[in-house]
Amino acid sequence: MLKKLSVISLIALALVSCAKTTSHSPAPEVMEFSAVASHTVVSVSVVHSLKSGIIATTNYPVDVPFVVEAVHYDPAKGIDSGESYMSAEKLEYNSESGKWMAQDAYFWPEKGNIVFYAGSPILPNVTVGVGNGVSAEWVIPNEESTQVDLCFSKVIENCESHSTAVPFVFRHALSFISFKARTLKQYSYSRTEGNLVQSNVITVVLDSVKINGILSKGYFTQEPAKWVVDDDSATQYVVYRSDTGLELGCNRYDSPILVELARMLLVPQTLLPEATITEWHHMAVRSSITDLSTGEIISDQTYTLPKTSTRPLTKVCERWKMDYKYTFRIAVGQEEDDTELTLAVTDWTETKEIILGDE
Q: DSSP character for 15?
């Protein structure tokens, strides 16, 4: 079976073909490849920070290669007679041709089907094989910027009526977890009594946010797509932390402004009862009293009021499933008991809202 040729062999084949004036057999058809994505099955950043924006698009990054394993099933040999067709073949994007290419050229067999498995990223703990497809021992690091996505794809092509280019549509094996924060309301106010006006500028400043009791380790297999999670891997992750803090303000209509704190890629899991989110913030207060008749500032005081609160994540969500985005929104303010935690579930690119439980 003609399966692949090196570049030198291709040139030699072309020269021989040109030397012949007649031919009774068609030239072998070169196999082409593409990396595509749509809706919830979206490509991701592997070697870049999540803040690069690749994770939120529908374009597979051309600078991130992936590995392909393929098996050919010849109908003449029976359904269980699959033969290896591509073995751990690395596909890279060629900017000159605008195509994804392997080191060697592959050709379409005349008959039968080919099953392709593709996996990304290319790491020692990620393997791609016939049967299970992509499999990986996975540990989520603590630093958000070092978290990478785990992608997988499966394509079945008929050799006689195949696609122009084998379309690898990647899915995410991980869950996309986003955190956002806002103030509960506008707290600043002023009041006047006679010639005196009291002005109170009150700002909510977020200092730190952490999530606790999150399972960080697991083993993923593509066929069937599932995770076996390590129940003893409960970990704390820092969502946001700053020495200066993040001011949570309102727009000119006094409506709170929602601010994104972090994007994280975490292992899909059923959340533990001890899975919580804890936030620390403070109220920065400047209170002054001015005599309107003289313009004299009678009193001017500045002080802070530290606050903290903890909420169980299970109050709004019981599980995270692969290939979905869960956006936790926390609203904080003057009273610790007033802290609100809400959740929105969407597809990976936030183009479609999902009813919780219908993922």
A: H
CB 312 within 8 A of CB 273: yes
Distance of CA 237 to the CA centre of its chain: 16
Q: What is the pTM of this model?
A: 0.83
How does DSSP classify residue 31?
P
DSSP string, 38-60: BTTB----SSS-GGGSGGGSSS-
Across the chain, what does the average pLDDT equal? 85
- Lowest-pLDDT range of 13-22, 40-49, 193-202, 329-338: 40-49
Q: What are phi and psi of 273, to 5 degrees?
A: -60, -30
The amino acid at residue 94 is: N
**314-329 pLDDT, tens digit each:** 999 999 999 899 999 9
Q: What's phi and psi for 16, nearest 5 deg?
A: -65, -40
Would you call 196 exposed, middle or buried from its count of C-beta atoms within 10 A (0-12, 13-18, 19+)? middle
pLDDT digits (tens, 9 = 90+) for 119-147: 999 999 999 988 889 999 999 998 888 88
Q: Which residues contact 14 (CB under 8 A, 6 or more apart)?
A: none
